[in-house]
Amino acid sequence: MRIAELVVVVGLAGACSSSTTRPPAPAEVAEAGMTAPRVAPPGVSPTVSTTATPTGAPPTGVTAPRDALTKKVSPMNLDDLLLRAGSATFASYDPSAVVAAVNALVPLGKDGALAAIEAFLAKQDLAKAPQQGLFLVLRVLFEADAHPPMRLGGSQPAPPPAPAALPRFPIALVDDVPLMLVQSYTLRGLPEPVSAHVAYYRAHGTLRAGPLAPAANPDPMAGYESAYRAAYGAAPSAGERAFIQTQLAKR
What we know:
Blueprint: H1 3-16, H2 26-32, H3 66-70, H4 78-87, H5 95-105, H6 109-122, H7 133-141, E1 142-143, E2 154-155, E3 171-174, E4 177-180, E5 185-186, H8 194-204, E6 206-207, H9 221-232, H10 238-249
Helix pairs in contact: 4-5, 4-7, 5-7, 6-8
């Protein structure tokens, strides 16, 4: 039925009886390209909706395809991940931030990963926020015969007498969980910039073979205590153990 014919039908129905007005049949509405009005049950006032359906959204009562839903959720981009890992203080260190940054950089390859870090640093105000957490990202991202010392001042604990015992100090990589051993540094003077380590790993580093895959079940605390004893010849203090347990709780 065409639109003009539909108008005539509706008009005639209204003229016959004002008390028994019939809404257009669904078939008539569908043919005319209209939307069928909702008829309230007897004794119930009709409700008018003023909420418009967004363009491209599925009709009411229809579930959107999964890919359409996930497109609305924007994952953290690489700069966000680097900022999260780089700007955190050592005292509030979260190993999951380093894991996420490292795993996002590995697929870029050595040159791409270093270029991404340099591009990120170029956009930061390093005088206010030097992004020192990226020292830790680099130490986990790369293998090296000798990792460069972090010249940020004195620390507790100090680097071990034999650097090979904890080659990534102040990081202890236990079961692919990068644990931070130092809560803070005491420095008189200017700290070393992250860019110095970017240059070092470009010359001497080998990108790790694959992403970090921390195990969900094993508790890295035992591995941490074993590595600590091997490096220092003594057990970690209660405060050092508590610092590690705080990190593990954030995983």
